Amino acid sequence: MRDYNKVILMGNLAQDPEMRTIAGGKQVTNFTIACNRSWTGPEGQAANEVSFIDCEVWGKSAKVISDYFSKGRPIFVEGHLKQDIWTNKETQKKQSRLRVAVESFNFIDSKKSSDTIPALAGNADEEMTDADFDALD
Fold it and tell me: Least enclosed by CB within 10 Å: which of 3, 70, 86, 96?
């Protein structure tokens, strides 16, 4: 059996995206998507929950998301889960987190017309190397 790791999300940005340039001139943007889920409980009561999912995107897509998205704007993303593992400098304990490594995204509102948005060349999935990850500390 082959493994499969695919994430598809649609939600609103929970905060403004944060773009930075790391060693070697690579651009990376981090953002959080708030995804709401609503359902009817067993006794007919309305219920809902919100999940906040951290996302990371590299390259030209990082610049586009940083330039055209802001808190509250809806977005559709596809990618895969990636686990970051590091040692806490204060406690010396291993820590980890899951995030979505964004491979593609779509605008899902009409705030900007498609002719004002630069065309994206290539894949948004430029994975970090160990050296890139170390440069973020």
Answer: 3
Taking CA atoms, 11 is separated from 23, 53, 107, 116, in Å, by: 31, 10, 11, 22
* Pairing verdict, β 46-58 and 94-107: parallel
DSSP character for 43?
T
Q: Where are the domains of the chain?
A: 7-135
| pLDDT tens for the 137 residues of the chain, in order | 899 999 999 999 999 999 999 988 899 999 999 999 999 989 999 999 999 999 999 999 999 999 999 999 999 999 999 999 999 999 999 999 999 999 999 998 865 544 444 444 334 544 444 444 444 44
Instruction: Give me the DSSP letters along 46-102.
Output: EEEEEEEEEEEEETHHHHHHHHH--TT-EEEEEEEEEEEEEE-TTT--EEEEEEEEE
Confidence (pTM): 0.76
> What's the rounded Cα separation, in Å, for the pair 91 and 89?
6
